[in-house]
Amino acid sequence: METIDQPTKVPERKEKAEGNFYPEKQNTSGPGMNERIQRLRKQTVETEPSLSIERALHETAFYKENYGKYSIPVLRALNFLDHCKKKTIYIGADELIVGERGPQPKAVPTFPELTCHSIEDFHVLNTRDQQRYTISQEDIDTYEREVIPYWQGRTVRERIFGHVPPEWQTAYEAGLFTEFMEQRAPGHTALDGQIYRKGLLDFKTQIAEEIAKLDYLNDPEATDKFEELKAMDISCDAVILFAERHAELAERMAEKESNQQRAAELREIARVCHKVPAQKPDTFWEAIQMYWFVHLGTITELNGWDAMNPGHFDQHLAPFYTAEIATGTLSREQAKELLCCFWIKVNNHPAPPKVGITARESGTYNDFTNLNIGGITSDGKDGVSEVSYIMLEIVEELHILQPGNAVHISKVTPDRFLEAACKVIRQGHGYPSVFNPDIYTVELMRQGKSLKDAREGGCSGCIEVGAFGKEAFILTGYLNVPKILEVTLNNGFDPLTGKKVGIATGDPREFQSYEELYQAFVNQLNYIVDLKIRVSNYIDRMFAKYAPAPFLSVVIEDCISKGRDYYDAGPRYNTNYIQCTGLGTVTDSLSTLKKHVFEQQTFSMEHVLDAVANNFEGEEFLRQTIINKTPFFGNDNDYADAIALQVYADLLTAIDGKPNTKGESFHLNMLSTTCHIYFGKMLGATPNGRFAGKSISDGTSPSHGADTHGPSAVVRSLTKLDHTMSGGTLLNQRFLPSLLKREEDIKKLAALIRSYFTMGGHHIQFNIVDTATLKAAQKTPEDYKDLLVRMAGYSDYFNDMNEDLQQEVIERTENEAF
Amino acid sequence: MQSALTFDIKRYAINDGPGIRVTIFLKGCPLNCRWCHNPESISPQVQKLFTRAKCIGCGECIKVCPSDACKLTRDGIITVKELCTLCGKCAVVCPSLATEMSGREQSVAELLEIIEKERPFFDQSGGGVTFSGGEPLLYADFLCEILAACGQRGIHRCIDTAGLAKTETLLEVAKQTDLFLFDLKHMDNEKHKQWTGVGNDLILNNLQALAEAGAAIQIRLPLIKGVNADHENIAATAAFIAALPGGKKSISLLPYHNIAAAKDQKLGLLREQNRLQEPSPEDVAAVIAQFTEAGLRATVGG
To answer: Does this chain's domain B3-44+104-300 share its CATH topology with B48-101?
Structure first.
């Protein structure tokens, strides 16, 4: 191990690194943002993420002192309580909603019990170009002295890697799949409305009742249940204490505060924090603070994937809003201000950074807290309220990275709401994405949820669905489907390393038919999926036994009544997902081989494989023929779409219904987040003409530039897939701002969304193309064949325009920003 | 069953009538407007298009050409028009779509299948099918058959026309049409002839007859500075439209854009349209104001 004493050269922070560091001129403040919010926004945007070693120090000291004295759940809960007792409490100027996971905004703790950062990791994080996290040399030294030695050999990560079979390790290192739980705990959960009806003291009563009911005579699990319930009880105390400490600090600050108005605010903060989360909230402010303390509790006790999600936040807050508006104790402006304060709180919490190679898999500060706006209620009615519209306004005006947000558009959702959302989409910030409750309700019911629980469900961080507040829906990792084809085409070997990473499925040069090739691919697929699931199941039990989450278990329904942890089948429903990526890339590659090698014999298999191995060097004729004369996915072409359908069906056969460790099943979803970039880097050239190292297609979207027949053809291709068999699909569509200029264009976009959803689509999001994209399109036109430009009265593809005109479109796009 | 020569089919068309539409472009036009942004629409024959920038110089077209029309010169590959029989073999082998054939004979049944695919989008947006061109009225029999079939299926039908056809043909088509997008290029007969190659008598008569027959009409006005955007022509246009019988006609202004230049190159055409000028936003605003004064509503865009 090499230590670095010299301060490494620190690069300049790149502007706009992930929405985190806008130059001041881009610090756009919307009409509804008051000065308080502008100041808070400036702070959250400009504060650089840093690492805090406070939690690790508390935890290490606690483990040294107490490991072995208690059952694991109780140890975890006491560790959490100890940290809540000691951690730095922060209340910033201007804040109304309070509480930070770290000692100050954007200070991210580490979780050495899961994975312990090395000295090198810290230096890399401190100096890298993007997604940087600062840490002082003093803290690094302390960490090296106090934290690292204790955890060596004890972390969950090391125990997992100590167990995995070598064939898993080689496949993992080849980028055939990722493993979510090697650095973070299973997460991806969202809450239902329980916490607005019950305070933690009520939960404690319920826990006490369950403990009293334990039957040590007849129930062999009674002791385990007792330990888990005791841990849940302690964790409630921890969060109540955490809130109380904020109340005390706010009172002290109020005494010293010379500004009368701020002093009054601080006294109100103190009152709210005395009350929630111990008791149920009664005001709009209390309800937001209630959620925020619960959120912080879950992300402080453990580092779950996807911070945490409030679920249908607008629906939860609407009754408080309506009641207070009626009594006159709250104005719309105050409600909006409080919600903005909440938004900023979420943005203050970047994702805890990973270690080693995984950092490459998902390079983002985003921790994927996602708000579901609109949608349907649990009795199937329209869930849109005034709070939903306020939230849309905030998305439009505040313009910060987190929280993510999505609008949910059901048949019963009013056009007014959809069109309001389309206007925000038009702004081009990438938010909101659009979901279809009518379809995901069916998805969830197919997996066995009740109608009511399914309707109360939605999407957590990305596009994956779950029954909010009642389900552990664990994402286990991404599957690099195009890489599986690459390995098949190399008879089990990874051409990038020469290592054997799969099974021998035959030399493709000897295949006589497309069917033979396809069967080899399916065999390889099944092998890889089973390899992944075997290890996922092992990891599941590691978390259930050694890293339970008692506080999260309190707020997810049925954990208390079952006396079981969130990770140990406590929730009402327990699903494991595998996220499949690259459907477009793999479909187009198979279509190429089917058409050109087996049907038309334009090229021999040998020729294509050699061209691919040489990254198409000297093979421009072959590559151009492929990219221009092959049916590709996303064009409403039955030839290509049938291949996509077949791949989807075989992914389902490989994954859907395989048992998990909780007596339930694995399911798939078609999601890539940012992993299609990493997977592309781990993949050589592919038969569809894609060069080595370039991104694979994302989600269920067509490959970049492969869709040349407009959005309605994309929608028709996509809806040939039965989305209800998945736990979520993802469709990204690029739009130029000029296509969304007029009011009637907004209506047409809304109609496009309605059409997609009527036909069974799960999710769609729109990237409003900026000038940088257009410039990129000039350089590599083939990746951008889908870019449709609207001029007054007519439209044409960007690629079909001559350079002068393209230049003009670029200039106009620059000026047409909304 | 009738068929027609198409040169493009545009799905998610949002500029050719109400809602989300599919626009079917029919090849061939009796007008030859200098500003035409679809120059390949003018000839009623199959044509060969060549995009030099896309050519990778593989020479496959030279190898397959049965009449030695494709030649390699110092300027790259060219087609000797006199020798070319438009057999299309070069386009089949061309790997990069540098060579494409424009014009494809498609039957009513074939097109109905394509139109039907867009039905979910029609249903949600109040859209439908638009026949454009070229001049769709060149294919009157075909139009009557396909429009009737669309009508039976409850699909909204638009015809985008320059209006140059036999009046009886137009009125026959009108029976099966829900909305006409009727282009008016110029009110002055001589100038019309100068810029489009034909006079406007029949066109104006047809518009009058169509309005009298009670057809729903939206007027489309390509707006080209130095051609038809002047005060005098707009005044004449406004007066003519205002005097048309039936409900008040809305006017769509289509400010000229030199989008056709790339397509001209493809066809090997050399038109002098670079001299044509795009109207400025102020010019467009002035035109709108002029129509407003005449009691008419004009908006920009289709």
So the answer is: no
Residues from chain A contacting residue B22 (CB–CB below 8 Å): 712
Please indicate, yes or no, if residue A681 is contained in any of the structural domains: yes
pLDDT, position B271: 61
Q: Is A743 among the domain residues?
A: no
B63-81 confidence digits (pLDDT tens): 999 999 999 988 889 999 9
Say if strands B76-79 and B70-73 run parallel, antiparallel, or are unpaired: antiparallel
Residue A120 resides in a domain: no
What digits encode the pLDDT tens for the residues A411-436? 999 999 999 999 999 887 778 899 99
Class of domain B48-101: alpha beta
Instruction: Find out whether B81 and B124 touch, Cβ atoms under 8 Å.
Output: no
Distance CA B100, CA A782 (A): 17
Residue type, position B212, single letter: E
Where is average pLDDT lowest: A270-284, A620-634, A734-748, B262-276? B262-276
Q: Tell me, what's the pLDDT at A10?
A: 40
**Which ranges in A257-331 belong to alpha helices (H)?**
260-275, 284-301, 313-327
CB contact under 8 A, A792 and B220: no
Q: Is A337 a catalytic residue?
A: no
Q: Where are the domains of chain B?
A: 3-44+104-300, 48-101
pLDDT in tens, A141-182: 999 999 999 999 999 999 888 889 999 999 999 999 998 887
Report the chain B residue with the minimal C-alpha distance to residue A803.
B262
Report the domain count for chain A.
1
DSSP codes of every residue in A66-77: HTTTS-HHHHHH
Q: A546 in a domain, yes or no? A: yes
Question: In the predicted model, is pLDDT for residue A215 greater than 50?
Answer: yes
Name the superfamily (CATH) of residues B3-44+104-300: Aldolase class I (3.20.20.70)
- ipTM associated with this complex: 0.92
Check B253 against A710: CB less than 8 A apart.
Answer: no
* Domain extent at residue A591: 166-189+469-699
Indicate if the alpha-carbon torsion angle A439, A440, A441, A444 is positive or negative.
Answer: positive
Measure CB to CB from residue B124 to each of A623, A629, A758 and give the nearest one. Answer: A758
